[in-house]
Amino acid sequence: MRVHVVSDVHGSVEALARAGDGADALICLGDLILFIDYDDHAQGIFPELFGADQAERFIALRTAKRFDEARAMSARLWASLEGDPREHIERIVRRQYESLFAAMPTPAYLTYGNVDLPRLWGDYLRPGLHVLDGQTVELGGLRFGFVGGGLRTQYRTPYEISDEEFAAKVEAVGEVDVLCCHIPPAVPELLYDVVARRYERGSEATLAAIRRTQPRYALFGHVHQPLHARTRIGRTECVNVGHFRGKGVPYVLQW
After folding, report:
1. Which of 10, 113, 139, 203 has its CA 20 to 30 Å from the CA of residue 44?
2. Cα–Cα distance for residue pair 117/173, rounded to 1 Å
3. Rounded average pLDDT over 207-211
4. 38 found inside a domain
């Protein structure tokens, strides 16, 4: 059995269409939407609405951890739009989702990232695309568990949930061979982004579950340029499957 795993697709439609080549199945760990690109300031929802120069300034404020200024700037820009800002965002998100879900190879097993809008996914699913969150599926004799979303941060991305809600999904998954999450377990070297020069949030509940149940693998994304892309916790191989928008290459799991 050969499974390809991607995370942090962030609008990469053409690469996503090829991600399942040679695989029996594709697993996608979320973050399909591209809101803003820290490498190309002209790409994403934010620059489409406000321009690349404003995106560059916004990124600079967030990179400098001047979050109050970034939020104030963002609020001014959103207030400058005619109508409800949520309608503008949803219009562009829907366009991105339409292209991404049409390109998604099948069969595919998906869970949500912290920048996704779960309520919209059902409008774009088709046969062979399976969404799992706090749920499991058997592939090639191995049991895979899926936990989507992120934990609450000062970045306030769309699908951040409470620690308690996230932990409940980890508990619902139970013992599995492969634990698939968008965010990493709370291990510092897996959480530090060497380019953004900051720690992302990881899950203590996921870390506890790994220590307790010892799956073969724990797969995740979220941290685009991690200090360490993998580590071992007991017998569990913990692997950041890579920033798919940046690499364009899936992680291969074969057994």
Report:
1. 203
2. 22
3. 98
4. no
Q: Tokens 């991607």 belong to which residue?
A: 6
Q: The tokens of 117 are what?
A: 């809008």
- Model confidence pLDDT, tens digit, residues 120-159: 999 999 999 999 999 999 999 999 999 999 999 998 999 9
How many domains would you assign to the chain?
A: 1
In a domain, 17, yes or no: yes
- Supply φ then ψ for residue 52, to 5 degrees: -65, -35
User: What's the CATH code of the domain at 199?
Assistant: 3.60.21.10
193-204 b/e (C-beta count within 10 Å ≥ 16 → b): beeeeeebbbbe
Phi-psi map region of 6: left, alpha, beta (phi>0 left; psi -120 to 50 alpha): beta
Give the residue numbers spanning the domain of 109: 2-33+105-254
Q: How far apart are CA 113 and CA 222, in angstroms?
A: 8
- How far apart are the C-alpha atoms of 119 and 62, rounded to whole Å? 27
Give yes or no for a cis peptide into 184 (omega within 30° of 0).
no
Orientation of helix 52-63 relative to helix 67-79, angle to 10°: 160
Q: Would residue 139 count as lying in a domain?
A: yes
The whole-angstrom separation of Cα 159 and Cα 152 is 9
Q: Convert the pLDDT of each residue in 7-64 to its tens digit.
A: 999 999 999 999 999 999 999 999 999 999 988 999 999 999 999 999 999 999 988 9
Q: Are 240 and 226 in contact (CB under 8 A)?
A: yes
Among 124, 121, 189, 193, CA closest to 153: 193
Query: Considering the domain boundaries, does residue 59 fall inside one?
Result: no
